Amino acid sequence: NIPLNDVGVALEMSPEKFKEKYGREKPSPDDPNVIFSCRKGVRATSAMQTAHAKGYHAARFYRGSFCDWEERGGEVIKG
User: Taking every annotated instance into account, which residue ranges of this chain make up the domain Rhodanese (predicted)?
Assistant: First the structure.
């Protein structure tokens, strides 16, 4: 999970720094599995635009995001 305000900085980090901060490998700019989501899709769209500006042109967003997921019967685990 990368907060919207951190997306640009995160995508500019070295792979080592990214892994240290986020606990996973930094995706490559052509990775089609960079998908942003939020509650309704507004922030996810903004994150995707930031990623595109940083050279991650394959990045996508989940239109409707969590609200859409929940409306379609997606599993929601509350804890």
Answer: 1-78
